[in-house]
Amino acid sequence: MNHSSQDTGSGGIHEDGKLYVVDSINDLNKLNLCPAGSQHLFPLEEKIPVLGTNSGNGSRSLFFVGLLIMLIVSLVLVSFVIFLIIQTGNQMDDVSRRLTAEGKDIDDLKKINNMIVKRLNQLDSEQN
Which residues cross the membrane (predicted)? Predict the structure, then answer.
């Protein structure tokens, strides 16, 4: 890529010390001689496209907007899943507490049942 103007095969241009401007990589064989008193090698007005003139930038910005929307939606979905996990954990804690409390109630009911059975056996043995 770093060739002098003689190496580019520009067809008879053999001046040394002159600056040449290349508009794009595709136009390497079309070299334009820069004016001798030029202060700006690359004018900004020609090199920076105006918004909306280049369709590639529009599709690129549309792509980034779509990507941003997808990231926001995925963030919302992940937040919702985390919320559901926390809610499910809280409900499981409630169910565990209820089961523990019901287990104690069942143990109390078994004790009461045993006491009733013993009393009934005593009454039955007294009647016989």
Answer: 62-86
